[in-house]
Structures are given as C-alpha cells and as structure tokens.
Amino acid sequence: MLPGAICGVTPDARRDAAVEAIEKVMPAVVNIATETIVRRTRNPFEELLWEFYDPYYRRQPSRLYSLGSGVIIDEDGYLVTNDHVVRSATRIAVKLHDGREFDCDRVATSAKSDIAVLKIRCKPGEKFTAVKFAAPGDLYLGETVLALGNPFGLGGSVSRGILSSKNRRPPSANEPLDVADWLQTDAAINPGNSGGPLINLNGELIGINVAVYREGQGIGFAIPIKLVLETLSDIFTPESLKSLWFGARLKAGESPPSVAEVQPGSPAEKAGLKSGDIITRLNGKPMRSFLELVRELVSIGPQKDIRLDLLRGGAAQTCRLQLIPESEVFNEKLVQSRLGISVQPLTDETAERIGITSTDGLLITAVEKNSPAAGAGLERGFIITELDGEPATDLLKVAKHLYTKKKGETVRMQLLVTRRRGAFITVQPAVAEVDVR
Predict the structure, then answer these.
(1) Who has the most CB within 10 Å: 63, 79, 130, 258?
(2) Out of 114, 186, 277, 309, which one is annotated catalytic?
(3) What is the 3-state secondary structure (H, E, C) of the chain?
(4) How far apart are CA 193 and CA 424, in angstroms?
(5) Yes or no: is domain 330-435 CATH 2.30.42.10?
(6) Short-list 239, 92, 71, 59, CA closest to 146
(7) Burial classification of residue 3, based on how many CB atoms lie within 10 Å of its CB (0-12 exposed, 13-18 middle, 19 or more buried)
(8) Fold of 14-236
C-alpha cells in the first residue's frame, strides 16, 4: 500500500501544500474596483507604478475599473490593499471569490508604506473569511511563495515562485524604487494581483503584492508582513479613526492584542497601561484581536468609562480610562505653549490677500516676546509650510508632533515670509529652527 493510503484510497498526488494553501486563502482575496480616477502629478515613487498601471488609468471616468486586489484580514470585513490602488477613488467596490459584491469605505491609509485599510459595507453580524498573518521575520530565502489575486473580478489568479530576497534595497537616487526591505520574488505580479496577498505554503500572509520591476525579467516585489503590521498599528487607532486620544499603540496580528508602546501623559499611561500588557477584555467582553479592540474603543466614544482587563507578566490586572477628544489637547494652545506663537489655518481669503494660491500652511498671527519663536526671528504674518519635513497643513497634527518633543529639542520649519512694500507684497521661502520650551 502506498504511504498515506487509507483503506485502499490513494492520495491525490496533485493536492500538495500549494493547492491546500490556495484553497485556504482564496476566499479572503477580493477584486478592487474604483470609480472616478483622476490623473495626478507623479512623484518619484509613483514612476514605477504609473507605467505599470497606465493603461488602466486612461479609461473614461464615472465607471468602475478593476485596478487590483485586496485581502480580508478580519472576519468583520476589514481588508488591506495598496494605497495607490484606491488613493484617487471616490467610490470603492469589491468582488469576493464567491461572486458577492459590496461597496467599501476607506478606513485609513499610509502613502509612505503604500498600505490602505478598507471596510466592507455589510449587514450587521455578517462574517467573512480572513487570512492569517505569518510571524514577522518568519521567512526563508528560497522558500516557495504564492502571489494571489482576483483580477478584474473574474475569479482567482495564482502565480508561484520563490522568495528571492528578504530585504531588497534598490538604489534611491533617481531610481523608481525607494522602499527598503521589500520582498523580491519571481512569482508573476501583474495589475490584477497587485494589492493581493503573497503567502507561504502554510497559507499565511507574508506580504502584499506591489508591482513588477520594469528593468528586470520576472522580478516582482511585495510589502513584507512586518511593515504591513507596523503600518496597521500606526494607522488603525482611535486617534486616526475618530480623533480620540487613547495613547497606546497596539501590536497588530497578535491575539489577544498586546501593547507595543504607551505615550507619556496619555489616557493610557495615566490608567497604568504598560508596554507588553496583554489586553484580554474590554468592559467584560473578550478581545480577539487588535482590530476588535480598536473598534470597541471607538464605538464607546469620548468621556465614557472603559475597563480593560489585562495580563502583565502572567498576573491579572485591571485599569480604567476615558478617551479624550484630541481637539481638547492638541490645539493652538499647545502650539503657543511649546513655541510661543499663535497660529491658524490659512483661508482662501487670507491666501488671496497675501498673493499666494495655496492654503497649505499655518499662518502665524502673533509671536510672544522673548519666546523661542521670537528668538528664531519668526514674525506675525509668516506662514509655516513644513515642520520637521512634514507638511504643516493640519493644526492637530502639528500640535501632536510638538507634544512628542522634549524641552530643549529643536524643530525645523519651512516658511513663507511675506513682506509688504507699498502696494506690493513679496513672498519668499525661508528656514527657521526653534527650540521647544
């Protein structure tokens, strides 16, 4: 009798580990279709993606276009895809492997890591098949990998290859790829399965497919699971979803969820949460994943009592906290207290009066005497366009950035300096470094 044969039944030689992994994951793979794609100015990162997707962007607007794939990461209908697939969309729809179709909402995105989180609009209680995450770093050079997708809503697409590199670092100077630690594979990645999962033979998610490299033959890239999980931890938070200050970053992919780090002075720190705590229950309800925990926190809302049961070093602990609207903490008062300036968002009217076309920036309306800002030469009427390399378009984000700074640390500002000479106003760029007090 052949090895593995039971009661005279010979195993099917075709059903290997790859087939079983595909059967396990394919129900979690979706086709992504978007509406109203507007061609936009390209940045260096998009040069690679543009040539790859150009034929699909050229079609007429106001219709649905199949631009890529995604993968469901939670049974309640949360899924991950590439940010560039949905970045310009006014409407997003998905088609599942079984033919069901749903509209989706954009939950959170990260252009830096090219990750987007979407939520399927479904009936209360409706569940979906979700992919399992591989452990970060659990990769073998040369192991068999599978790139899955649902191109054009026509059903599952699979390509097979090996993991060629675990930390491909393409040249950054004037090159199309400037993303460190992408996975490289010879599994074919095409417009249909970009945004879909790259899995191992255990059926675990090890990366999100991105693109093929136009300068090479059969070279594909994927965002590694480590970066996917880090991005999920950063963008799927009460702060990013509902501007509610929690102050603890959770580790994505772990069940039950655990705390990665705690922000000083936050509600989480004041409640006694510490890095490494494993949160088992929220108000008596068991927590299965960090996604569920964040959803529950957001649904409770601000200024409501929250009880968290947790394990710390194997011992049971309990803490209580309330979420605080970020606008009550991270506002113009915080900016004034740290730098000595009063600021307000630019309006169309103000921009027109100054003689600029953009409203991207914060207008300095007052400068305290003997403050750090005054010492750096800042004056009323200057416009802050960047703070430490990040656009200063949102007062909340600027205030949050300043909150993380220690006393005496320096922030670097990009400015537009306005000068009036008679009936004329001149606008010139400038740079200033201001110590935080």
Answers:
(1) 79
(2) 114
(3) CCCCCECCECCCCCCCHHHHHHHHHHHHEEEEEEECCCCCCCCHHHHHHHHHHHHHHCCCCCCEEEEEEEEECCCCCEEEEEHHHHCCCCEEEEEECCCCEEEEEEEEEECCCCEEEEEECCCCCCCCCCCEECCCCCCCCCCEEEEEECHHHCCCEEEEEEEEEEEECCCCCCCCCCCCCEEEECCCCCCCCCCCEEECCCCEEEEEEEEECCCCCCCEEEEEHHHHHHHHHHHCCHHHHHCEECCEEECCCCCCCEEEEECCCCHHHHHCCCCCCEEEEECCEECCCHHHHHHHHHHHCECCCEEEEEEECCEEEEEEECEEEHHHCCCHHHHHHHHCEEEEECCHHHHHHHCCCCCCCEEEEEECCCCHHHHCCCCCCCEEEEECCEECCCHHHHHHHHHCCCCCCEEEEEEEEEEEECCEEEEEEEEEEEECC
(4) 55
(5) yes
(6) 71
(7) exposed
(8) Thrombin, subunit H (2.40.10)
Which is it for the CA torsion 73, 78, 80, 81, positive or negative? positive
Q: How far apart (Å, rounded) are the C-alpha atoms in residues 109 and 113?
A: 9
Q: Is the pTM of this model over 0.85?
A: no
The mean pLDDT values, 10 residues at a time, for the chain of 437 residues are 57 90 96 70 54 50 70 94 88 92 92 91 93 92 94 82 78 48 85 89 96 66 93 92 94 89 95 96 94 94 96 95 96 96 90 81 94 94 93 92 94 88 78 95
Q: Hey, CA dihedral for 62, 72, 198, 43, is it positive or negative?
A: positive
Ranges of each domain in the chain? 14-236, 239-326, 330-435
Q: Is 97 a catalytic residue?
A: no
User: Class for domain 239-326, per CATH?
Assistant: mainly beta
Q: Which tokens belong to 160?
A: 């097979």
Among the options 84, 234, 289, 401, which is catalytic? 84
The upper half-sphere exposure of residue 116, i.e. CA atoms within 13 Å in the direction of its Cβ, equals 25
Contact 63, 35 (CB under 8 A): yes
Phi, psi of 20 (to 5 degrees): -65, -35
Q: Quick one: tokens of 78? A: 């949360």
84 given a catalytic annotation: yes
Q: Which of 228, 26, 5, 262 is nearest to 129 (CA)?
A: 26
The yes-or-no answer to whether 239-326 and 330-435 have a common fold is: yes
